[in-house]
Design goal:
Helix content is about 35%, strand content about 15%. It has about 375 residues and is of the alpha/beta class. Strand 2, helix 3 and strand 3 form a beta-alpha-beta unit. Helix 2 packs parallel to helix 3, helix 4 packs parallel to helix 12 and helix 9 crosses helix 13. It binds flavin mononucleotide (FMN). The site of flavin mononucleotide has 28 residues, from strand 9.
Length: about 375
């Protein structure tokens, strides 16, 4: 495809194809992101919780691997104080699992979590600004967005509702990632513990497109050219795909994660708070099913991790935390450059198929010759 149905995102970001490889903390690597950028998409790195002093080396590595635009992504939650009652409830609820695995009891106290994107992260980015910076869980509370924009960065952020999308546009985002319920990984909803009814992508994208004037990037359940074509039909100017890239050899996904996606079906994931404290779409396990009823009262993100990580670390598949979305069965094991070429070709074919279809008649029989009387 040389020209896409909507070129606002490609023009905004300076890329050939409106395909963003999703930032995936712990799964994306410089090799993956650079391969996608070199193939004409936007490669992204999940940099959540990376110490700010490590950012300069990461930016240097990315610039050695590609001279195309790439995206660094951060979580944007504020400081999180432990809630002793939530901790007590979680300790009681997890005690049988700990006993089953012969683990020492869950921790009796939790350390507060600091702000995820601190002023020191901002300073490190301003010293060597990447073309694109994206955020998840809303935007940082300080003046990061105007300062990054002044430095020439384009800003993207996930929205899971129309209200979130409107707020992001008002705060200066250059494009908005509409994240549907189907999406793998954590939902980007701003509020911790809020009721989250979760719109599917087909309902969400056109409503966000109608509500904002910046380009909208559709994310969630898209893993081939048919999904990309559908996103354009819904009014999106681009797509963000995460699950589709997990099985690429360049990703850092564990063998268990790759195997879970390779065996995925439409029903093999479930949204859970039981690992991190925030809703995340993950490979469905016995632990996730057992915890489904109580997850609202667990310690807030990210303070559930210290309780769930010892269970994950046992290696027992019942406690596996492997993030992927509802379209996992469409993901294939192939190098990122091949995947990008296939997505572009498939999307072109799907769009051409739709483009050659005849428009339906608005009045049945309008083109029929008048019946002989
Ligand atoms: C393994 C995994 C990790 C993720 N980590 C992040 C992250 O660090 N930052 C972020 O903004 N989104 C993250 N996401 C969500 C993606 O940005 C995106 O919304 C999602 O992958 C789209 O749905 P799909 O997986 O069905 O393509 C992650 C998704 C997955 C599957």
């Amino acid at each position: 495809m040389s020209r896409w149905p909507d070129n606002r995102l490609t023009d905004l970001l300076g890329i050939a194809h409106p395909i963003v490889q999703a930032p995936m903390k712990g799964t994306t690597t410089p090799a993956l992101a650079a391969a996608v950028s070199n193939a004409g998409g936007l490669g992204s790195l999940g940099c959540a919780y990376l110490p700010p002093e490590d950012l300069a080396a990461l930016l240097g590595e990315m610039r050695r691997r590609t001279n195309r635009p790439f995206n660094l992504n951060f979580f944007a939650h504020g400081p999180v104080a432990p809630d002793p009652e939530a901790l007590d409830r979680a300790r009681a609820r997890l005690a049988p699992f700990y006993a089953e695995k012969n683990l020492d009891p869950p921790p009796e106290r939790l350390e507060p979590a600091p702000e995820a994107f601190a002023p020191s992260h901002l300073d490190a980015l301003l010293a060597d600004p990447p073309a694109v910076v994206s955020f998840h869980f809303g935007l940082p509370a300080h003046d990061a967005v105007p300062r990054l924009r002044e430095a020439g960065c384009r800003i993207l952020c996930s929205a899971t509702t129309v209200a979130e999308a409107r707020a992001l546009e008002a705060e200066g985002c250059n494009a908005i990632i509409a994240q549907g319920w189907e999406a793998g990984g954590h939902r980007g909803a701003f509020a911790v513990g809020a009721d989250d009814e979760g719109s599917g992508l087909f309902a969400l994208v056109p409503q966000i497109v109608d509500a904002v004037s910046v380009p909208v990037i559709a994310a969630g359940g898209i893993a081939d050219g048919r999904g990309i074509a559908a996103a354009f039909a819904l009014g999106a100017a681009g797509v963000q795909l995460g699950t589709a890239f997990i099985r690429c050899p360049e990703s850092a996904a564990s063998e268990a994660h790759r195997a879970a996606v390779a065996a995925a079906s439409d029903t093999s994931t479930r949204l859970t708070r039981a690992h991190s404290g925030r809703p995340a779409r993950s490979h469905r396990t016995r632990y996730i099913d057992a915890m489904a009823a109580e997850t609202r009262d667990l310690p807030h993100f990210p303070l559930m991790y210290p309780l769930s990580v010892p269970l994950q670390a046992t290696g027992d598949p019942d406690f596996q935390f492997s993030l992927y979305g509802q379209a996992g069965a469409l993901a294939r094991a192939e190098p990122a450059a091949d995947l990008m070429a296939r997505l572009v070709e498939e999307a072109g074919a799907a769009l051409a198929r739709l483009g050659t279809g005849r428009a339906p008649q608005t009045r049945p029989g309008a083109e029929e010759p008048a019946p002989a009387s």
